[in-house]
Amino acid sequence: MSRYNDIDMSKWREYSEITTDTLWIIDKRDNSGVHSGNYHGNFVPQIPRQLYSRYTKKGDWILDPFAGSGTSLIEAQRMGRNSIGIDLQAEVVKSAEKSLAEEYDYHTTAKVYVGDSRTTDISSILSENEINKVQFVILHPPYWDIIKFSDNEKDLSNAASLNEFLSAFGDVIDNTIQYLEKNRYCALVIGDKYANSQVVPLGFYCMYTLQQKGLMLKAILVKNFGETKGKANQQAIWRYRALASDFYIFKHEYIFVFKKVQ
Ligand SMILES: C[S@@+](CC[C@H](N)C(=O)[O-])C[C@H]1O[C@@H](n2cnc3c(N)ncnc32)[C@H](O)[C@@H]1O
């Protein structure tokens, strides 16, 4: 058995639900229990589930500095992992807490805090929970300004420029990755965007930010976008526009996996 997950290699054929390929086609969101697609911009629970299966063990602590509706914490709770989430918006944190309480499991701890993940005192949060390191960090930042999450100027979705967005993202990395245990993993979930008739490869810029900060890149995974409520009736118009012009319609986002080696 390896040190960073609960996979029993003597039974390796039994883990057919765990993906080992770089292309993740997930057509149906897991809407079981309190999971729902209601928070615009949330990720499908299958993303944290897959990552926790590969990179965490029962009893580990997971940190999510962009917790949103709490998908990653709900999934952690279901899988016997402890979790700490941070989000800028108080009402979103409240709703995540409500979801977690509905599926409360006394074997695990799941705490969500209101704060700016660039500056929140994470050391105090960890001491409050009687730990000093976490074993996995999951990062699902705004895809810059594609979805505006709030009017708060500290919100990464309100960054005035690409450089400002990347610098704020870098500040979140500095404030969180120091608490990740050495030789453990973190994952970044992000998509690209178009601006001024060209692709802005946010995914690769953010990937590079993490590499520059000393993290070792272990995987670049490509996940399809399933049909979202908003886009369903706009499909025809986007196809028309794409055919009439020179661009392609985004149908994928990235999951980058890194190891903290130093
Ligand atoms: C892409 S969403 C995360 C969604 C989440 N994975 C889920 O499933 O609900 C990004 C989140 O980052 C939050 N956010 C933006 N800037 C932040 C900051 N400086 N500190 C903490 N949270 C921030 C937003 O409020 C939003 O909820």
Report what the structure shows.
The chain is 30% helix and 23% strand. The chain is an alpha/beta fold and 262 residues long. Strands 1-9-10-6-5-2-3-4 form an eight-stranded mixed sheet, with helices on both faces. It has a two-stranded antiparallel ribbon with strand order 7-8. The two termini are 23 Å apart. The mean pLDDT is 95. It binds S-adenosylmethionine. S-adenosylmethionine (SAM) is lined by residues 39, 41-43, 65-66, 68-69, 71-72, 86-89, 92, 116-118, 140-142, 149-150, 154-157. S-adenosylmethionine is lined by residues 39, 41-43, 65-66, 68-69, 71-72, 86-89, 92, 116-118, 140-142, 149-150, 154-157.
Concise overview:
With 262 residues, the protein is an alpha/beta fold. The chain has helices at residues 46-55, 71-78, 90-102, 122-128, 162-177, 202-212, 229-232, 235-244; strands at residues 23-24, 61-64, 82-87, 110-114, 134-139, 180-190, 193-195, 198-200, 215-224, 252-260.
